[in-house]
Amino acid sequence: MTRTILVAAAAAALLAGCAGSRERKGYILDQELASAIQVGVDNKDSVSRTLGRPTFTGQFNENEWYYVARNTATLAFRLPRVTDQTVLRIRFDQAGNVAGIDRTGKELVASIDPYGRQTPTLGRRKSFFEDVFGGIGIAGAGVPGAGNAPAQ
């Protein structure tokens, strides 16, 4: 009887590791509040009061605010996949008034696949021993004051 309970508990623990999970990341976008923002009417202060601080501002233009909301799902030990994403971009003119509002979804999510877990580099390939012992004897070579500088 005890053995059956132990086997059942072990099986339950193993199956619990295979369960999926869902996560919500970033800004929680309220559709009514987002649709209340109007071009030419609102400014940075009113947008900040209505939607709160942006997720991030534009890297090259601080007059662009981004609100990013993303939902992901993970099954067992797989990498998370994006199930839903909304990016709300609000552009301001030089006076700080709303000049445009753009909304995109998960169609812009890029899947980046690394190349063989290595970064290809240009140049000569070194063996293990060349990497380990290749620097012996060249420390300070050509550096003034390292003992090999010409006498004055």
TrEMBL record:
Keywords, A to Z, come to: Cell outer membrane, Membrane, Signal
Q: Which InterPro entries match?
A: BamE (IPR026592), BamE-like (IPR037873), BamE_dom (IPR007450)
**Domain Outer membrane protein assembly factor BamE residue range list:** 26-101
**Membrane-spanning segments:** none
Superkingdom classification of source: Bacteria
One Pfam family from the UniProt entry? BamE
Q: What is this protein called?
A: Outer membrane protein assembly factor BamE
- Which species does the entry assign this protein to? Sphingomonas arvum
